[in-house]
Amino acid sequence: EFKAVHPNVALKTLLEEKEKEVENLKEKISILANFLRQSNSQAEVMEGIWTTKESGWQNFQNRVSDMFDRSQKYVYVVSRDFSWSSRLADSVKSCYRRGVEIKTTFIGTIDESNYQRAKWFNDHGVRIRIFKTAVHPRIIDVDGKEILLRLDTNPTKRDRFSFTSIWSKDASLVKVIDTYVKGLWKEAKEANFEKIPTR
User: Fold this and answer.
1) DSSP E strand stretches across the chain
2) Could you tell me what percentage of the chain is helix, strand and coil, using 3-state DSSP and rounding each to the nearest 5?
3) Are 129 and 104 a contacting pair, CB within 8 Å?
4) 112-137 per-position pLDDT tens digit
5) Which helix (DSSP H) or strand (DSSP E) does residue 31 occupy?
6) Which tens digits make up the pLDDT trace of 64-102?
7) Rounded distance, CA 136 to CA 158, Å?
8) What is d(CA 143, CA 145) in angstroms, rounded to the nearest whole number?
9) I want to staple 65 with a disulfide (CB 3.0 to 4.6 A). Which of 35, 91, 168, 170 is the partner?
């Protein structure tokens, strides 16, 4: 035998189920809104140019590696530290195998603190020249098609610090940077790896 439940009970149960669904939906919307808010604060995109503010070097290194992986002919780098990661190392080796020429203008002095990293890059096909200057942005220029600039809030500080990254495929901006880094390369002096420099 079956007996229908009172309409008030049935409707109350149905209402409770719908309220649970709404609460679950609210949670998902809240999570999605937080994610989108973080993404928006980390990167502002407008017409092929984006900027980020950050303090960790890992994200920057990953972007550099991605750019190296997309390269077809050449990569110009302006570096201060010869930063190294296993992912970047793989990208450099891949460039070498594909015949992509990497030219790095180092804006400091090669000494005991960075010699081994510099020599690693040199030994893996990266041509290195020296242009001594105290203040200069880090620059990556891939094939004259895309650039990545790193603007340090404290350009002489060596420890953890915040910086702004600017990436663009904007043809006019890329052309300016491409012309500049090629000129800087010509002005720079060949690095010497015959002996470990001492301070």
Assistant:
1) 44-46, 49-54, 74-79, 101-106, 126-130, 138-142, 146-152, 163-168, 189-190
2) 45, 25, 30
3) yes
4) 888 899 999 999 999 999 999 888 88
5) helix 7-42
6) 899 999 999 999 999 988 888 889 999 999 999 999 999
7) 14
8) 5
9) 91
